[in-house]
Known about the structure:
Radius of gyration: 22 Å
Largest sheet: 8 strands, parallel
Helix content: 25-40%
Oligomer: single chain
Number of helices: 11
Amino acid sequence: MRGLLFGILLLTASVAGHAANGPKEEVGAKPYMGWSSWSLQSTKVSPYGGKWLTQKHLTEQSNALKKTLQPYGYKYFNIDSGWSGGFDAYGRPAPNKKTFPGGMAGMAKIVHGNGQKLGIYWIPGVGSDVYKANPPIKGTKYHVRDIVAKPLRPGNAFGAWHLKIDYKKPGAQAFINSIVEQFASWGVDFLKLDGVCPGSDKDISYCDNRADVAAYWTAIRKSPRPIWMTVSWKISPTQIPFWQNHSHARRIDDDVESYNDKLATWSQIRARFTDAAAWAGHTGRGGKTNGAPRAGWNDLDSLNIANGSFDGLTNDEKQTAAAFWALQCAPLYTGDDLTKLDPFGLSILTNKSLIAINQAGYAAKEIQGDDAPIWAISNPDGSYSVGLFNLSDLNTVVTLDFSQMKKNGDYEIWDYWTQSLIGHVKDSYPVLLAPHACSLVRVK
Length: 444
């Protein structure tokens, strides 16, 4: 396996992420960086949880993002489930005016005013309440009941709350176009389409949402406002070519959250090492098909590492998670309370070398597996960016073997964490790692 070190694609040189007001770039050209609300919504710790999602609280987070992480390239501000409160005259989702008195357009004004991009959450299908009301589809002679699949059945992994759409029926694509048109009119820059099958803990026989994803992707590609689209969650790797051609990114694993008194769990971090291996080689900028990325990015979910013990991870585990997210070129976003960032976690999230690895856009390959995995990327100067990990519960020596590098002489080892030279070695680089710790180095 170690011989694969020399087959890794060259890493294009990259600088740290641009600030929100930096040069414009094509949506999906590199992993996005930002913040997501779901981790704070999911915890049982007061004052967060189900009722926390309000315009007031999100304004506080947006203001904090501007002061803390945004100068390093974190500019997407993603509002997850819970923002909607019914539907409009055309059956499209409407914001909850009690929690968002300014609506989503008002929220966009706040977020954009801070130099950020607004993200929103939605799911496939037609709401059962919309089906009962049967409103007209904007710009057509059809009504919502005209496009719903018969017999009635669930439209996504969450069940019968949303009903399945039959895209062979006239008016179906127009309905999705109208939803995306509304999002764009509000100023939305990002869409997380959740509960997508095959995936989301459901197999393809339960509900196949590929037609929904294609419909939203078509609408987004036609939208005059550029919108990033991520499909979620734990999307099935059996349909990789489809996801590559119909999204900018896909969540490849379960939620990282504990849904208890912490924001994340080590078990979920660890699981990503195994699951990411199935997606290795299927991520990155790729080429283009009618303007769409042919690869896209593997989303590992929120990187919750800067709220102290509230994150549910040790400092070693936080470094391990951050190193893996960076090497995978996963979208780099946190779900922490941005008003309470701790110095240790903040130093990781703002590590310019780590950000550069992530933003370069060429994901690492696994050259050693099991409980002592090694993932590596080759750099244009002949060096390698390498992560050595100890996933076990015991102190373990993890060794990077240079025997097949076919070069003589010493190797220089430089540490990404301390930003300093470790030293020179011959033949191999062994490192003693504490449980769940990692070494992130440049080898030259």
